[in-house]
Amino acid sequence: MSFTKRLIKWYGEHKRELPWRDTTDPYIIWLSEIILQQTRVEQGTPYFHKFVENYPTVKDFAAASEDEILNHWQGLGYYSRGRNMHYTAKMVMEDHAGYFPTNYDTLLRLKGIGEYTAAAISSFAVNEPKAVVDGNVFRLLSRYFGIEEPINSLKGKKLFTKIANELLDKTQPGLFNQAMMEFGSLQCKPKNPYCGICPMQPNCRAFNEGTVISLPVKIKSGTSRNRYFNYLVIIKNGQVLMSKRGPNDIWENLYELPLIETQRPCEAHELINSDEIKKNWGKDIQLQCVTGPVKHILSHQNLFAQFITVENMDVNIINKQYFFIDIDRLDELAQPKLIFGFFKNFFNLK
After folding, report:
1. How far is CA 71 from CA 45, 156, 219, 329, 342, in A?
2. Could you tell me which residues come within 8 angstroms of residue 211 by beta carbon, excluding any fewer than 6 positions away?
3. Do residues 184 and 140 make contact, with C-beta atoms less than 8 angstroms apart?
4. Cβ contacts of residue 282 below 8 Å, gap of 6+?
5. What would the mean pLDDT of 182-198 be, rounded to a whole number?
6. Contact 158, 198 (CB under 8 A)
7. Whether 174 contacts 9, CB under 8 Å
8. Pairing between strand 322-326 and 239-244?
9. β-bridge partners, 290
């Protein structure tokens, strides 16, 4: 039995029943694919249902504000994906009369849609014969064929895409792509794959050569840089002081507490007695308590954050970038996980 036939047979017997698999609506497929990128199915499924419920059509998605989209996205991380989705939804309304494209080449022209997502949407929606190559597919192919070319190199991506397209069942590409991704997710897992009961085992080079654990090969990225975030927690009359982040940095357009970033770890008492604090927040500001430091890891960045609760701040010198909001309305603001995680514990929020 060929690789393709074994794969599709396995899929028919083991596939999960997932809510986005019973539709050919390109908008719904797009939602699921973007949400599930770098997100486990278990984590992403509730978000998928929430978006479909609040924005059943691309028109509804485009009509929402960016703040609303980011608020629903809160907790998924990689917030640029949410912003790109909002931009793309507007493009679909303006350039495609509200009809979400299904053609691979047309999809590539939409913001936030790369080769993987375009192949997924086009093959699942209209069976366009384009192979999907994601992390699961990289892993399966590298092990089965014993390929040591790094999956994140330009040469490697071209090689794996070529092989995937050669294996692709042209009569049912959507089904084949689903099977490839599902097999990599459930059977040929990154750690502790089920090699003992794998239907691909007889012809799997990695299994026969003892290289399963070492494949796929990936070029290590550069070292992460450390950043030191000092957040001021300023509460007045049941309200907390907040600000909105600007562009050209992490968490663009999300809401956070007033931030003072330093080049090194800084003791709270040292910080509040600094000239910068006295100039911007008043000379009589007093330290109440400190939470942290908390380490928060992002792609290529390690954040070390402490939350400094202060009192006797001079409210008359607050600049326009800050605003007070009722504590019980904090859930209306899209916040980074680091911030809403702090609020959840500090204010005992649900």
Report:
1. 16, 37, 34, 12, 16
2. 143, 146, 205
3. yes
4. 312, 313, 314, 317
5. 93
6. no
7. no
8. antiparallel
9. 308
Place of tokens 């990128």: 37
Beta bridge partners of 29: none
In this model, does residue 22 exceed pLDDT 80?
Answer: yes
Please report where in the chains the tokens 């949400």 appear, as a residue.
35
How many residues are recorded in the chain? 350
Q: Tell me, what amino acid is at 193?
A: P
Let me know: does 93 contact 62? Beta carbons within 8 Å.
yes
pLDDT attached to residue 313: 75
**What are the two backbone dihedrals, phi and then psi, of residue 240, each rounded to the nearest 5 degrees?**
-125, 145
HSE (CB half, 13 Å, CA atoms) of 281?
A: 23
Q: How far is CA 113 from CA 1, 23, 31, 56, in A?
A: 35, 19, 11, 20
User: Rounded CA gap, 314 and 255, in Å?
Assistant: 22
pLDDT of residue 350: 66
pLDDT in tens, 48-64: 999 999 999 999 999 99
The SS3 of residue 257 is coil
The token duo for 188 is 């040929």
- Residue 66 and residue 88: Cα distance in Å, rounded? 12
| Encoded tokens for 21 | 């698999």
DSSP lists the bridge partners of residue 52 as none
> By CB neighbour count within 10 A (0-12 exposed, 13-18 middle, 19+ buried), where does 67 fall?
middle
Kindly list the catalytic residues. Answer: 33
Q: Check residue 272 and give its pLDDT.
A: 85
